[in-house]
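[job 4471] stage=fold_predict status=RUNNING
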Amino acid sequence: MTTLITFTDTGEHDEFGVTSGAGMRHISIREVTGRDILAGKSDGLRDFPKLLDAVEQTSPGETVVLDWDGIEIATASYFGTTLIALLRMAMASELDCYFVVTNLNRTCIDELKLVLELLGLVVLTGEWTNGGIRKTQVLGSLDASYAETLGAIQKSVSASATELHTANRGRSGIGKTGWINRLSNLHRLRLIRKERVGREYKFHALS
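[job 4471] inference complete, writing structure tokens
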């Protein structure tokens, strides 16, 4: 599954390793931590307060781009005490933001995938280039029905359960309630955002 999310590179550098722009916040893990090898739980516990402080500077509902460019290795236990902790806080509504993880090398992807699948979590990954995110995909185990729904939102950019139900009538046996459940769970996983429009919610691809 591939989509293209483009940001205009008009951001301001407001602290070391962090760039702000319209609707997003880019955080360089290499610059925030000052290291290129991030191994073990102890390293994660050391760095988590720095990462949390950077994330907490975001405006409500922003997309946070966690950029791992320049990181040679980050282990599963490091991810468990940093990225996973941030994801869980967002899922619990303790952080009002959405995460996209970018520029992971193959070793880091394997380590992160290991902990995500162990915990039943998912995250969007992609490439950060020229002030934008390319080639986004889900890392972790996502049920095929949810992957299909996520693809529909990314294709349309935004849609309500009613709109998806109407658009797929005759091709899918899913009722409106089924679409609501799917969309609500994708939002709980922080893979899409939602806003109330009139009497129902509209769901949007991350941007």
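[job 4471] summary: The longest helix spans residues 40-55.
[job 4471] exit 0
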